[in-house]
Amino acid sequence: MRLLGRGVRCVRGGREVLSGLDFEASSGEVLAVTGPNGSGKTSLLRIIAGLLALAGGSVELEGGGDELTLPDQAHYLGHRDAMKPALSVHENLSFWRDFLGGEAVDAKKNLVNDSLVSESLINDSLAAVGLDHAAHLPAAYLSAGQRRRLSIARLLVTRRPVWLLDEPTSALDAAGQALFVRLMSEHLARGGLIIAATHAPLGIESRELRIGETS
Ligand SMILES: Nc1ncnc2c1ncn2[C@@H]1O[C@H](COP(=O)(O)OP(=O)(O)OP(=O)(O)O)[C@@H](O)[C@H]1O
Question: Could you give the C-alpha distances from 69 to 34, 65, 100, in angstroms and in order?
Answer without folding.
Answer: 26, 8, 13
